[in-house]
Design a protein that fits this description.
α2 packs across α4. This protein has helices spanning about 5-25, 40-50, 50-70, 90-110. The chain has about 110 residues and is mostly helical.
C-alpha cells in the first residue's frame, strides 16, 4: 500500500496543475505560459534569440489575445491551449541568457 502513495500523489499533483492551468485563464485566449512572462532585460534578450517562426507565432498569439480581450471574448473551447500542448519554448533561451549574465558578472568581479 505504501508503494502506491507516490503514484496517487503524482496523479493528484498533475490534476491540481491542470486545474490551476485552466483557472489562470490565459489558455482561453490561446496564449502559452511563456507568452505571459514579464519582459525584463533577460527576457528581451531571450526573445531576440528566438527563431523567427517562433517569435512570429508568439506575436500572433499575443495580438489575438489583445483583440479578444478588447472585445471581452474568449476563444471557442476547441481552440484553447491545452496543458499537454503548452511547451516552454522560451525557457531554454532564457536559461542560457541568465547563465551568460551571471558568468559575465562573475568575470567583472575579478
Amino acid at each position: 500500500m505504501a508503494s502506491r502513495a507516490p503514484v496517487a500523489s503524482g496523479r493528484l499533483l498533475l490534476g491540481f496543475r491542470k486545474w490551476y492551468y485552466n483557472m489562470c485563464g490565459f489558455n482561453k485566449l490561446g496564449l502559452m505560459r511563456d507568452d505571459t512572462v514579464y519582459e525584463d532585460a533577460d527576457v528581451k534578450e531571450a526573445l531576440r534569440r528566438l527563431p523567427e517562426d517562433q517569435f512570429n507565432d508568439r506575436l500572433f498569439r499575443i495580438q489575438r489575445s489583445l483583440d479578444l480581450s478588447m472585445k471581452q471574448q474568449i476563444l471557442p473551447k476547441d481552440q484553447w491551449t491545452k496543458y499537454e500542448e503548452d511547451v516552454r519554448y522560451l525557457s531554454p533561451y532564457l536559461d542560457e541568457v541568465i547563465r551568460e549574465r551571471k558568468e559575465k558578472e562573475e568575470w567583472m568581479k575579478k
